[in-house]
Amino acid sequence: MANPPMIRSFLQVAATEEVAQPLRVVQIEGLAVLKIIKHCKENAPALVTGQLLGLDVGSVLEVTNCFPFPVREEDEEIEADGANYQLEMMRCLREVNVDNNTVGWYQSTLYGSFQTVELIETFMNYQENIKRCVCIIYDPARSNQGVLALKAMKLTDSFMELYRNNNFTGEKLREKNLSWVDIFEEIPIKVSNSALISAFMTELEADTPVTQCDYDRLQLSTKPQMERNVEFLIDCMDDLSMEQQKFQFYYRNLSRQQAQQQAWLQKRRAENNARKAAGDEPLPEEDPSNPIFKPVPEPSRLESFLVTNQISNYCNQINGVAGQSFSRLYLMKALQES
């Protein structure tokens, strides 16, 4: 029996609301986390990537499994071989009844240097086939400090709309009310395990010895991490200075063009006044064929936005490293005094 029109309308509205639910949390299985950490640490300091598999359920993106992409040399045919490798891996996973739905990808980074144009292009390529996907970033260098440096990132909807139009002029950014903080959105990560794994870990917890990670948390020296972050921050400041020079050059050219246009208009108006006095038809006050009336192309602000994002990331990391270092020093001082 077919559904009445009222019920069909209600189902359509409910389905629309379900699809429109924003992404609230990324729930990732503990096994997938361990696979990501193992792949990234074994290949560090080289950067690696891999595929995330799982389910998109309402406002939760469940990551249940993952597999690494092979590391190839630059002169090899990466694109075609990579696509065939992914298809073959997903076919094998489907045969053993493992989730083979792509929900994004993961990649390693070095001290948080991941906000690049390449990452945005990868997001846009995934968006062509997947309505909602995330990129999980893992930083082995920061994890050596005793912190699980794992974060899930996605592009904001407003930025993706602007990127499709490839229009990052100042006027368009002001119209969309878009700033450098509106490019990426970090989604909270929730690590989950099955009941059997949780029970097994509880049994092992009492006999677990002190690990190297526990000792890493007590290291007082943060000199290597601080130096690298400051070095990357200086490089980003140089890049931002170069971007600012591009805009200064653009505004100088624009000001020079406007001055030339005003001088040409004054000359043309004086000539038209003379022609009117002589009884001739006035000449048009605009000449599109004249080079001074061609608009000066405004440089894109995307690169400066990404560099500013990266500078903010490095500053936050320096603040975090320095804060942890001071806490350890005060703790050691209190222990020595006691």
Automatic annotation (TrEMBL):
Report the superkingdom from the record.
Eukaryota
What InterPro entries has UniProt attached to this entry? eIF3h, eIF3h_C, JAMM/MPN+_dom, JAMM_MPN+_peptidase_M67A, MPN
One matching Pfam family: JAB
Indicate the segments forming the MPN domain, all copies: 26-159
Biological process (GO) annotations held by this record are:
formation of cytoplasmic translation initiation complex
Which GO cellular component terms, listed alphabetically, does the Swiss-Prot or TrEMBL entry include? Answer: eukaryotic 43S preinitiation complex; eukaryotic 48S preinitiation complex; eukaryotic translation initiation factor 3 complex
Q: Where is this region: Disordered?
A: 266-296
Indicate the family of this protein.
Belongs to the eIF-3 subunit H family.
Name of this chain's protein: Eukaryotic translation initiation factor 3 subunit H
Provide the species name: Papaver somniferum (Opium poppy)
